[in-house]
Each structure stands twice: as structure tokens, then as C-alpha cells.
Amino acid sequence: MATRTDVGADADGYPAPSRGPLPTKDVGRLLLRCADRPGLVAAVSGFLAAAGANIVSLDQHATEPSGGTFMQRTIFHLPGLPAARDALERDFAEQVASRFDMDFRLSEAAKPKRVAIMASKEDHCLLDLLWRNRRGELDMTVSMVISNHADLADQVRPFGVPFIHVPATKETRAEAERRQLELLRGNVDLVVLARYMQVLTPDFLVNVGAPLINIHHSFLPAFIGAAPYRRAKERGVKLVGATAHYVTEELDDGPIIEQDVVRVDHRHTVEDLTRLGADVERVVLSRAVLWHCQDRIIRYGNQTVVF
């Protein structure tokens, strides 16, 4: 089954444009995934009702009409949630999640995600995230910017975010990742790679303790390597795009969160393609980060469901 009861979603079942910030005090978000079977919605709703919570919105999706995987995002209001959260999470695990073998995550809407941004020399994605965050468009707190180059320090300083230069090359990768892990582990809920131009090792991904979101141009894998826009121009591409995805050990092969494209033609120069590509990258990355921070995303295999 695939049902939606959510005033904040469009008729296509895709996140609708925001109508302004919703109150967050005492608002919880419950995301879950399990094997589909009858009674799941009733069990979750009944538990929340018994706890004194009022369901504000409920989105759900099953991968098959029968026998598939069930996913659900529930937004609820519960007076005194901060004090009751731990007990609520424990009771849900014992009374519902264990019964249906659910993976679930419970969060408070009033607690912004702690986010670290990693960058290199290109500034467009980094500065866009900082600007949107300062305007209140992203529900997060930027804890730090880590860069393997010092070039962007002066541009980050006006945003009041710590800029930490950790030199990293292929030869010094182990020492750089050790220092980065000291900064990140236990201190952030999300790491955003805003055109960070170093490959992260499997050991780093295992030990960082937070999901990572990456952005890249959508020419992959056709134009892997240096100068992708020049090579794309030489092939006469008709679309320039970008992809935001979660980072896994398989390079650029993690679950896709968001993608977008813009049409181009023979009149566009390499510089035009680069500029248009940067525009798309900014928008796609900011959407992916926003949706993650709003607890809209459930990972399913190497895919995502975005409510």
C-alpha cells in the first residue's frame, strides 16, 4: 500500500514547497522501516495516541502491494516531549518496533542537526549552504568548515563558523583523516562534502559516526576525471545536471537523494556549462541537506525514499 495523509505534500507524493516554518516546540519525527504486513499503521498510531501524542502528518510507502518493505514518516505533537523523549523511544522499541522487527529513528524537530561542511577550493556549494543557513532556510547548525586548502578562510569568516585547515593529499591522507575524525566524531550529526576533492577511505566512513552527503556533476560516469565540462562540450551535451547522494565505500555510487538538470545547446561555451553546472549543484545539494535535516529521507538498499 502507498498512502499519504499530509497537508505539506503535493498530489504526486513528493515534498511540496514549504508554506513557511511550522512550530517545532514539542514536535517529534518518527521514521521507520520494516517488512510490510497488516496492522503497522494502526500499531504506530495507537502507540502515539496512548502516549498522548497528536499526529500532525503521516506519510507511508510500501515497495509492493504485498510482501514488500514498508516505510513511514510520522510527525506528531506531544506536550513535554523533551522530557518524555527517552522513555517514549524506549517504550516504542519494546512495544512496537520489536514486535514488527522495525528499524526506526525518533527525533525532535526543535533540535537542529549539527552539520560539518568539508570543502577544498571551489566555493559555490560551501558559500551557498552558509548563506541559506544564515537566512534560516536550512534547519541545521553549522558546527565547522573543514578544508584541505586555506583559500576559503576569509570567505567563511563573516558567517561566524569555525574554519579549520587540515592539509590533505594522497600522501598525507592517513594523518589528515585522523585529525578530521578527532574533530568530527561525536560532534556532528551530518557531514556535507561541498566539492571536497579528496577521496575518503572506508576506515574514515566507518569511524566518522555520521552520514555523509556528496554532490557531483551528473556527467558521471561518462566524464570521469579532470575537466568534465570541457569534455562534455566536446561531446555536444544537451543537459547539464547534478546529483546529491549519500557516501558509501563505492565511489559516487551511494543512494541518490536528489538530482536536477538544465538544458544547454551548441551556443554555450565551456565557461557557460561550468557556471550552469555550479548553479544546479548548489540547488541540488541544498535540497538534499534540507531534506536530511528535516528527517524526510529513509534509505532502502541503495535507494532512498524522500517523503
UniProtKB/TrEMBL annotation:
Which one GO biological process term can you cite for this protein?
'de novo' IMP biosynthetic process
Q: Which catalysed reactions does the entry list for this protein?
A: (6R)-10-formyltetrahydrofolate + H2O = (6S)-5,6,7,8-tetrahydrofolate + formate + H(+)
Hydrolase as a keyword of this entry, yes or no, is yes
Which InterPro entries does the annotation name?
Answer: ACT-like_dom_sf, ACT_dom, Formyl-FH4-Hydrolase_C, Formyl_transf_N, Formyl_transf_N_sf, PurU, PurU_ACT
Give start and end of each ACT domain.
29-117
Instruction: Determine the domain of life of the protein's source.
Output: Bacteria
Q: Which UniProt keywords apply?
A: Hydrolase, One-carbon metabolism, Purine biosynthesis
GO MF annotation terms: formyltetrahydrofolate deformylase activity
UniProt keyword annotation of Hydrolase present: yes
Which parts of the sequence are annotated with region: Disordered? 1-21
Positions of the catalytic residues: D252
* Signal sequence interval, chain numbering: none
Q: Under which pathway is this protein filed? A: Purine metabolism; IMP biosynthesis via de novo pathway; formate from 10-formyl-5,6,7,8-tetrahydrofolate: step 1/1
- Documented EC number(s): 3.5.1.10
User: Which function does this protein serve?
Assistant: Catalyzes the hydrolysis of 10-formyltetrahydrofolate (formyl-FH4) to formate and tetrahydrofolate (FH4).
By sequence similarity, the record places it as follows: Belongs to the PurU family.
**What name does this protein carry?**
Formyltetrahydrofolate deformylase
Q: Name its species.
A: Mycolicibacterium agri
Could you read off the lineage of the organism from its UniProt record?
Bacteria, Bacillati, Actinomycetota, Actinomycetes, Mycobacteriales
Per the record, the gene is: purU
